[in-house]
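Good morning C.,

I know you're traveling, so I'll keep this short. The sequence:
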Amino acid sequence: MTRRPTRREYLLSLGVTGAAGLAGCNTTETGAPTGTETATDAETATPTATETGAPDETPEEEPEPEPEEPIAEESISGWPMFGANPARTRAALEETGPTEDVVTRWEFRADNIIQTSPAVVDDTVYVGSHDGYVYAIDAADGSRQWRFEAGDVVRSSPAVVDDTVYVGSHDGYVYAIDAADGSRQWRFEAGDAVQSSPAVVDGTVYVGSDDGYVYAIDTADGSQQWRFQTRGPVQASPAVADGTVYAGSLDRRAYALDTADGSQQWSVDTGKYVFNAPTVADGIVYISTSDRTEGTLLGLSTADGSQQWRYQSFTPRGQTVAVADGTIYLGTTHEDIFALDAATRAEQWRYRPGDWLMAELSVVDGTVYAGCGDGTVRALDTSDGTERWTVDTGNLIRTPPTVVDGIVYVGNYNDTVSAIATEER
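The tokens, ready to paste straight into the viewer:
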């Protein structure tokens, strides 16, 4: 069995990677670089790059558990990208999730840690792994449909739009992959690792890179539309809303950029690193910041970046934020999950079970779903924080759960994607 990391080991893992600032001023460049490659017919068909339906050739360590029973496929629909939508609200109010009597319906095993949030579209779960592959998994029974070999670790959560999977890799490329068979459509070369998760809006992929740039890439051919330079790595996933890209950087600033040409609308000194994706709702962009010892959540006006409010706590990686129906839900590196009124910032409830949570949150249909550092997924009532159920997945969870049509999908440090659903469906 894989050993769970200790609290100390996890906190050490939160250290800044590549945080050295980049020299020079913030700049926007338009036009296509030479780094875009479209796949030739031969490359598309190369079996070493993509494998469809074939079993893994690596030695088996242990058999994968058989699913209890297949999940009904007729209504498995969609959660297309990290945070459920380009605004990264982490809320999908039209979806449903399990509220009682849950079981793990199936588990899928990769060859290394899964630190990406699954995308679920058209009956398929898409997820990346530290083993360097992007996987397409049948949402009903957990069987592998195909896998695509990226050049390195995949910490970028896939986005799936118009039958194409968009994902970044530590090899410095953003890949466009055919959702049906896993063949490569094109790849775009950034200047360093792409840990940021793409947001795809109106034919454009928006993504950050450790090279300090925010990129806008054409979905059709992978050509660069523009890029904007910050002074530090951009590991946080950008949010897109109402013609604006919101991005945070390890240069301790938050930026608002015009989606059309990448011109800067405003920028704000956050005072701390920005690791987590901004969340945009109701005229406010929520920026979670950290300096390794404590975190601050800033509420900034989307219009001009002026600070509307701030919340501070001990949470080395910064709070994770979900916003739904006028309520802000926060997960911290400590024991707490709590809800604040978005208008007054008054605390509505606080969940503190006495466990080490490090919660990553999603909100669906009156329930907060939390993927936690102790390996559990917890479901809480949004009205008062009452715990509805808890399932132990076996190891550390570092990304928010994906909730689609009554099923929770989540990856963990045990190399596993789990599907959790009501016992009888």
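Safe travels,
E.
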